[in-house]
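S1.2 Input.
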Amino acid sequence: MTTARAKPVFRTPTPDDGLAVWELVANTPGLDTNSPYAYVLWFRDFAESSLVATVDDEIVGFLTGYRRPEEPDTYFVWQTAVSPRHGIPFLGVKLFEAAAERQRARGARFVEASVSADNRSILMVLRQYARRQAAEITEQLLFPADLLGDGHHDEILQRIGPLAAPDPDPDPTARPAPSRVKETAV
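S1.3 Output.
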């Protein structure tokens, strides 16, 4: 079992992470379960807008997102989960903020997520992020439950923005060379 002293690393996912993420989703109540293939494909095509959190090479959390084709300055967070046994305080919050800030550094001016009106924990995360960014948060119905099948809730769109541009890097030559897998210690 992972302990509270463990230091998670956030990194860009690869297709090799798809099955572990699928297993995490399958073991997380309330999440829509997609096929393992969906995650493998996602981590091929949308890896740069997603993150996984690992401890000792074990995936303990993930976030999938993408930039909207019709609105490339908008980052949509699709799905996120953390292992309940990881023992790392606020891991889900840190994962969301790291992904959102990564996209803001790449020009995103808005962050969106759709959630159930009853999902108080993610609503709190979104509101805290908006407050820290001094940005507005708006909500509207994205998809009514009847479009999504029996037992599904309305998907309410939460939109944060506009976000201020990040502070420019004072020394762009000090950046490390890009790599296929980006890692960030938390």
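S1.4 Remarks. Residues 172-184 have pLDDT under 50 and may be disordered.
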